[in-house]
Amino acid sequence: MRIIVCENYEEVSKKAAQMILSQVTLKPNSVLGLATGSTPIGMYENLVKLNKNGDIDFSEVRTFNLDEYYKLPKESDQSYHYFMYKNLFDHININPENIHIPNGMTADVDAECERYDKLIKEAGGVDIQVLGIGNNAHIGFNEPTINFEKGTHLVELEESTIEANSRFFDNIEDVPKKAITMGVGSIFKSKKIMLIATGENKAEAIYNTVYGKVVPEVPASILQFHSDIVLILDKKAAKLLKKEDYKIA
To answer: Which of 143, 153, 208, 226 is catalytic?
Structure first.
């Protein structure tokens, strides 16, 4: 596990975008695993700039998003379909056929989850998976006590996750209670994982991810066993880590 600590959110976002740039430069038809939430927005802004400047070409890139709310229409401005197009896809030269996001409106959840995992496998697997982390150390929507071997599946969201996501909705009652998410088993198959986190509220989750026991109660702790993972943090998120365990960007 490599840990890079940056001065602030802006520097974290730039560093993360540079890692995506390096991956796509090395392999133009890379398979990117993408995340939503407030943390990766800055990274997406940097990628849009790089694309507009001609530094990165998304024309052959394939993408798979981690998750989508269950039974929230993709046209909703709170869906992750909407989020991804608003923050990235509408502004870059990506082929719409190469964009994959779970279908939260599916009538057959099991079939949709199976289809999604099959698509990832047929694409050759994820080359680099972007992750955020929840205050309770969830990755994707894999909540504490999750089975580490699960593939894509339907999950009931924890109250803490619903509360954290309520800031994006008019009121907490509007937040979906379920989501379709790539499982820890799916995420772990990624060739490289890049987890980004900023803010003091993520410090405990980061500490438990790096130093804690590998237990389902701390979903991100399984990342200790991944062969190629980098954490990109700001100083606040890294405040509980030992200085000898990370390098300053």
So the answer is: 143
Q: Is the dihedral of CA 191, 20, 154, 165 positive or negative?
A: positive
Question: How is domain 2-248 classified at the CATH fold level?
Answer: Rossmann fold (3.40.50)
Alpha-carbon dihedral 179, 182, 127, 34, rounded to 10 degrees: 10
Helix crossing, 41-52 with 80-87: angle to 10°?
40
Q: Is 136 known to be catalytic? A: yes
- Residue 140 CB coordination number (10 Å): 27
Catalytic residue check, 138 = yes
Q: Sign of torsion, CA 238 243 244 248?
A: positive
Which of 190, 240, 166, 201 is closest to 31 using CA atoms?
Answer: 190
- Percent of the chain at pLDDT > 90 equals 92
The answer to whether the beta carbons of residues 129 and 117 sit under 8 Å apart is no
Type of residue numbered 129: Q
Q: How many residues does the chain have?
A: 249
Q: What percent of the chain has pLDDT over 70?
A: 100
The residue annotated as part of the active site, out of 98, 136, 142, 208, is 136
